[in-house]
Amino acid sequence: MTEHVLDNLLKNYTDLITRVDEHIQRLARIHKDRLACKKGCDECCRHLSLFPVEAFALSRAFSRLDAPCRERVLDQAHQTNRACPLLVDHVCMIYEARPIICRTHGYPLYMEKEGRAMVDFCPKNFKGVKKLDRSDMLDLDRMNTLLTVVNSHFTACFEDVLPDRIPVDQALELYQSL
Ligand code: SF4
Q1: Rounded to an integer, what distance in angstroms lies between the CA atom of residue 63 and that of residue 73?
Q2: Residue 59 belongs to what H/E stretch?
Q3: Rounded Cα gap, residues 13 and 147, in angstroms
Q4: Average pLDDT of the segment spanning 51-78
């Protein structure tokens, strides 16, 4: 598969990323005094499992890293700790292409479980804040629905059945294996 073909297949995903980033940038402006998230804080960089569309996008970004960096990440992927293998010296090696969960982590996420409204965010953020406005949160269920639709369109373009989820360590070299 050429890069051009994959770019076309990933178009819906990159459009969704643009929308998520716009929303996150708005939340970052609104909550700027309440967020502890900053470069170098990597506590939420755990080893993830991704939808195929995100796994391929991540793998394409990985393929563009220089060879020593790729080797270091692959070495880390063979270790069994729970940190994401793309984390090197506390920095994400594919930050611009990081998955959606990495973009939204730490921000206030609104969700409903068994009919109950819930909000989740990094405990380092929003210290002392008693109440958050619903409009200042990201609707997690809505975002997941959009990502599921985008992923379904993506996987339908492949003759082979792709797994439902792909761990980051198994995603790294997907693009180069096409
Ligand atoms: S892809 Fe990057 S931002 Fe996401 S968990 Fe891995 S190192 Fe962290």
Answers
A1: 11
A2: helix 52-63
A3: 8
A4: 96
